């Protein structure tokens, strides 16, 4: 039997493991006349925030007066889609305790926070105020109300899920497109695999990942969409044999390559900071029709049906060799980056996805990854512009290359037109199903149904404190396409409110 796990509770590397708490609490006591002042310093990492509503401090066995607390700031919660009050940076809380203060007084600090991608479990930090001498006290951490939690084993051989094999797992918030892509990976047998770039970064660190992306960019120049066009592009920008000198050709090639890197870098910043989703664009029939029309026009021009001369829209000075050749090189480099074609698109999208995933944890450094890819693609161009001997010389063969590419691009135009038509065609109606009947809530009943019906079992772990879960319930899991994809599964929605609860452990073990 097959088992698929979705855990929107946490962003984890295993099926259901405790994510390390990125926040922190430190405490100190200061003796004052007739009272103790207790200060709590709460650490909030960059691009993280704590919910003001979830913050609380309790003193057992004593009366505490709040002396100071900074005002929270309003923020649009990406999970709840409403304005909430949060603390977005380190802050201090101060309380006054009237003496006498009993030795061993227990103090608890509770909080919950998120970043742009996920919300973390509610935390409860325990402290004790202890007497260390006449008129002297200290506050010490006792324990965090966090324990290592078990994870679903890959084979799930023991307990309730005996005989089931884990086919897929994922965690954190997923949009409709991301969820459907996850189900597709499960159906293709790759639901437990991660992207090569993600694995490289996880296993060897960010800098090794940067070098791998740089090398990938260099390899893109040897794809069928790019390599045959290198001499053509060099001739257009006046580099190579037409440069007049190796130094001039080197500089022209460098400007051309730098434009490629800048375009990919700008694309990465736009995608990461705006949260743009390529899947949503690809799912639009009108976007696919537009791409098909563009490709059809380019194909007909390459086949000689008509002459497509973009240079006539440029000022005379740019077209002239004695005018602005470096501006011409930069313009064509940028255009070449955008029209590189299907050969480079999968790699570019993979790097953009990786950059988006790393941005919440590594910050602005993740924005540079698409630029690094473009830089790798740009590296050979200065040397090509200098006229290295390994480059083929321009000749009649270029006309044949144009014809071949014209046919290929025409085929791509037909493909995108067909894809747009299929997306435009009315889909089969998906009956409306209420949440109560769509999901089962009893693990035992769901397992029995999966065995009896010989269907795979899909488990969605959730909790009332989980912002990711609430967002997915409100959007992703109500989408008709998602429900249609889940129709082939027995669906279990399991509330894992307290991870240390014996009933919860029984499901996770």
Give your account of this protein's structure:
The protein has 509 residues and is an alpha+beta fold. The protein has three domains: 2-10 and 150-180 and 430-508, 3-Layer(aba) Sandwich (Glutaredoxin), CATH 3.40.30; 24-144, Sandwich (Immunoglobulin-like); 194-279 and 316-394, no CATH class. Helix content is 42%, strand content 20%. It has 18 helices and 16 strands. β7 and β8 (83-87) form a beta hairpin. α2 runs antiparallel to α3 (206-220). The protein is flat, with a radius of gyration of 30 Å.
When the domains are counted, the total is 3
- Fraction in beta strands: 15-25%
Total E-strand runs: 16
What structural category characterises the helix and strand content?
alpha+beta
Q: Counting H and I runs of at least 4 residues, what is the number of helices?
A: 18
Q: Could you give the distance between the termini?
A: 17 Å
Report mean pLDDT, rounded to a whole number.
73
What fraction, in percent, of the residue positions are helical? Answer: 40-55%
Shape: flat
Poorly predicted sequence stretches spanning 5 or more consecutive residues:
10-19, 144-158, 310-322, 427-435
The largest sheet has its strands arranged as: 14-1-15-16
Taking the sheet with the most strands, its summary is: 4 strands, parallel
Overall radius of gyration: 30 Å
């Amino acid at each position: 039997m097959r088992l698929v796990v979705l855990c929107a509770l946490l962003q984890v590397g295993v099926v259901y493991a405790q994510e390390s708490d990125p926040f922190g609490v430190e405490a100190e006591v200061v003796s004052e006349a007739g009272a103790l002042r207790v200060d709590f310093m709460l650490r909030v990492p960059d691009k993280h925030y704590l919910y003001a509503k979830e913050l609380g401090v309790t003193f057992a066995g004593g009366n505490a007066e709040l002396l100071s607390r900074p005002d929270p700031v309003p923020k649009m919660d990406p999970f709840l889609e409403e304005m909430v009050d949060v603390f977005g940076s380190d802050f201090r809380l101060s309380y006054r305790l009237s003496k006498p203060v009993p030795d061993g007084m227990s103090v608890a600090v509770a909080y919950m926070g998120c970043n742009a991608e996920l919300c973390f479990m509610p935390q409860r930090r325990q402290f004790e105020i202890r007497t260390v001498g006449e008129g002297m006290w200290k506050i010490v951490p006792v324990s965090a109300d966090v324990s290592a939690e078990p994870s679903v084993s890959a084979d799930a051989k023991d307990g309730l899920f005996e005989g089931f094999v884990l086919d897929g797992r994922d965690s954190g918030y997923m949009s409709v497109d991301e969820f459907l892509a996850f189900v597709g990976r499960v159906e293709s047998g790759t639901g437990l695999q991660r992207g090569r770039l993600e694995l490289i970064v996880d296993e060897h660190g960010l800098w090794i990942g940067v070098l791998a992306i740089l090398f990938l960019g260099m390899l893109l120049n040897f794809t069928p969409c790019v390599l045959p066009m290198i001499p053509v592009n060099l001739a257009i920008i006046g580099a190579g044999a037409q440069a007049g000198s190796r130094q001039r050709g080197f500089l022209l090639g460098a400007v051309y390559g730098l434009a490629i890197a800048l375009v990919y870098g700008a694309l990465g910043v736009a995608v990461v900071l705006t949260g743009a989703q390529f899947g949503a664009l690809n799912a639009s029939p009108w976007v696919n029709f537009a791409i098909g029309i563009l490709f059809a026009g380019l194909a007909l021009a390459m086949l000689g049906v008509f002459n497509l001369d973009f240079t006539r829209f440029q000022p005379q000075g740019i077209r002239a060799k004695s005018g602005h050749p470096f501006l011409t090189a930069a313009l064509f480099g940028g255009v070449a980056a955008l029209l590189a074609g299907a050969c480079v698109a999968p790699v570019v999208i993979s790097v953009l996805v990786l950059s988006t995933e790393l941005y919440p944890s590594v910050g602005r450094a993740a924005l540079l990854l698409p630029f690094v890819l473009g830089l790798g693609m740009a590296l050979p161009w200065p040397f090509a512009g200098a006229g290295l001997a390994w480059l083929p010389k321009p000749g009649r063969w270029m006309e044949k290359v144009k014809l071949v590419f014209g046919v290929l691009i025409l085929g791509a135009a037909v493909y995108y037109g067909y894809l747009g038509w299929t997306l435009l065609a009315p889909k089969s109606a998906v009956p409306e199903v209420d949440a109560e009947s769509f999901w089962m809530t009893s693990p035992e009943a769901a397992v029995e149904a999966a065995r009896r019906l010989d269907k795979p079992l899909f488990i969605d772990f959730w909790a009332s404190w989980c912002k990711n879960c609430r967002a997915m319930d409100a959007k992703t899991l109500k989408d008709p396409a998602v429900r249609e994809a889940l129709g082939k599964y027995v669906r279990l929605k399991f509330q894992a409110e307290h991870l240390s609860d014996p009933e919860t452990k029984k499901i996770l073990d």
